[in-house]
Structures are given as C-alpha cells and as structure tokens.
C-alpha cells in the first residue's frame, strides 16, 4: 500500500501545468456580467498593502455549481471534496475546431478517443481541447460574433454529455470557451440547454480552461481549488494538471 508520504513524493516530481488564465479588468467574460474591479484599500505607506476585488463568480477560469442553473441544485460548498482531484482525460479536437469554429464534440469523437486510449474510467474529469484559449485575452476573438451578433464558438453536443454522464459516470467536464453549448446551438435554442442538462445531473464544470495543449490525452490528474464561499453558484478557480 502506498502511503500519503510516498504519493506526495511522487507528485512533487510531476510536471505541473497551470490550466488557469490570469484575470484582470479587461479579461474576456460574458458581456451581461460586469468586469472585475480592483482597488487599493491600504498601501505600504499605511504600513501594509490590502486590495479589494469585486468580481462575479463566473469570471475567468471558473467553476459552475449545479445551482448556477438548476433550482435545488448543489451550491459550491456542497460539492464533494474528493471530486476536486480527479484523473484527467483530454479530448483534442483542436484541428476540427480550426476548420469549423462551430464544431460540437460528439459521441463519435468520444468513441474514437477511447479506441485509441482506452475507455474513460468512472469519476474522471473530461476536458474538451479546442485551443480556443489561444484567443485570450481578446474579448472580440473569444466571442467571435458573426454579422447577426451570434457567437460562432465550439461546444459539447447534448448526446456527448449524456453519454459521458450516463455511460461513463464522469465526475465533471471542462472546456476552453465561455459556454458549454456551441454559439450556434445557443442561437438556435435561445438558451444554454446543454449547460442546463449538465448541471441538472448534479455535477460541476470548469469553463475557460487554458493550456490544454500542454497536457497529454490520458495519464494526468486535475486539481481544482477556489475560496470556501458559503452558498456560491460559482467562483474563479485555480486549476492545475499533474503530469508524469
């Protein structure tokens, strides 16, 4: 049996990739939400430096709790702590997205991934790599609006989410864009139906991930941390990948 000390020593030797964007007042964000505000409350002239930050929970790389969309869903502080450190699977569809910004991850993509890397284990975290994060920090490029004012952005298909949740029993998913749904799916439905479905299942998601291009498809682990807010719907998060 491996002791915690032995596991710690192993992880200290692992490569760590920060999957989190640095955020400021100009960071891309959902336009209906206010940008981050920061001010000095005290400076070193006062003897110590204290800053005040004002931001919405869904800002930058962030975690969404089920209550973000679903009445009666779990708050952030109700999520199981053991679901914040998980095996990480990265499905790379960056080439498909480069050809079609409206690409949706499908069941066929999951099955093709599993054909190559093996079946996704239960209680894992599955990330959709689109390389959309490389558009950061441009709000214009991140939203990628067409002439109708609609986003042209990649996302998860309903069928893929249903398959991962029901058939593979994943603990959480994540992506590089602002939304779970593709921009054109939102334009068609007038709502984030896939995001609602995902959160309705009682699991969380991480949005606006970064640097998934530095993480292998399998074999790494993801760790998510954030402030211990009481009854929060979401929060900016620090997300790390540990790689052998």
Automatic annotation (TrEMBL):
Gene3D superfamilies the record matches: Putative cyclase
Transmembrane segments: none
Protein name: Cyclase family protein
Source organism of this protein record: Streptococcus sciuri
Domain of life: Bacteria
Organism classification: Bacteria, Bacillati, Bacillota, Bacilli, Lactobacillales
Ranges in a coiled coil: none
Any matching Pfam family: Cyclase
SUPFAM superfamilies documented for this protein: Putative cyclase (SSF102198)
InterPro entries named in the record: KFase/CYL, KFase_sf
